[in-house]
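Notes for week 9. Today we move from apo structures to complexes. The key idea is that a small molecule is not decoration. When we ask for a structure prediction with N-acetyl-L-glutamyl 5-phosphate present, the ligand SMILES becomes part of the input, just like the chain. The input block below holds both the sequence and the ligand string. Read it once before you look at the output, and try to guess where the molecule might sit.
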Amino acid sequence: MTALPPTRDAVEALRKATTLIEALPWLQEFHGKTVVIKYGGHAMTDEALRPAFAQDVAFLRYAGLRPVVVHGGGPQINAQLDRLGIESSFKAGLRVTTPETMDVVRMVLVGQVSRDVVGMLNRHGAFGVGMSGEDARLFTAERKPAIVDGESVDIGQVGEIVQVDAGAVRSLLDDGRIPVISSIARGDDGEVYNVNADTAAGALAVALQATKLIVLTDVDGLYADWPPSGDPGDVIARLTAAELETMLPDLSAGMVPKMEACLRAVRGGVPQAHVLDGRIEHSLLLEIFTDEGIGTMVVPA
Ligand SMILES: Nc1ncnc2c1ncn2[C@@H]1O[C@H](COP(=O)(O)OP(=O)(O)O)[C@@H](O)[C@H]1O
Ligand SMILES: CC(=O)N[C@@H](CCC(=O)OP(=O)(O)O)C(=O)O
């Protein structure tokens, strides 16, 4: 008997099966593990990419992982402030948060962005549950000044997380849900605080002792030089916590909270922290389930 040459359909089917089989060791490694995903405000502005993000997170859940989403919403807050005629202003990458601005931040993050993300996830099953960092004392924060040219500058109700009580998040995960967290915190002083979403994701990844922190943004990863020279080789694929620490003082605003969150995560016991391009469709699946991975990965040593 002579084997027939494979048809084009058979070759395509084999290619698909090979892709699935490549995922097998990663499915085994990450089964039952917690992954904290920061979904950035810029990553969510492209309408076409939003369903792909929701599919990826639902896929993780169906594959037996325990995904947690911490969402941003900077551009959405800016748009609402614009509509209300309130000026947006930032110092060292953090929003100057007056009481009036705080009301808008809370309304947009908890009332709008969280609802949108939960709605997208729930197209795939009864998974998404929104939670503000104020709920069940998830995040407790203290007022945090910005450091501008070495000087401490008051920027209002911006908080630094000093305590995380992740009990309610764990309960949701144990119940098979996908927690969707807004980066608002309570203070022991009775105030409500605006926390940068990257920082919140890093703190939560440590508290949950997640297997990975994944920060989705609008750039391929961490560039060694910024602005980049145009050479794709400039994106750093892998770096240690010590290497990142030496780079931190030279990083510019947008990347600072992301890389600080990655550093905090790996120093706090999270084995891997990643910065990925949320503009690449299914970047989450590509990072978790393929041999090459994508973006920048930070490891403890
Ligand atoms: N070294 C660097 N590598 C990559 N991006 C950088 C770097 N330094 C600054 N950036 C900027 O940081 C931005 C990401 O931060 P940000 O705009 O706050 O994103 P997000 O809304 O996803 O939180 C990138 O789009 C890029 O303009
Ligand atoms: C203190 C501070 O700056 N908080 C952020 C919270 C939202 C956020 O971090 O959103 P992105 O991830 O989309 O940037 C803000 O008010 O914009």
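The CA atoms of residues 134 and 185 lie 5 Å apart.
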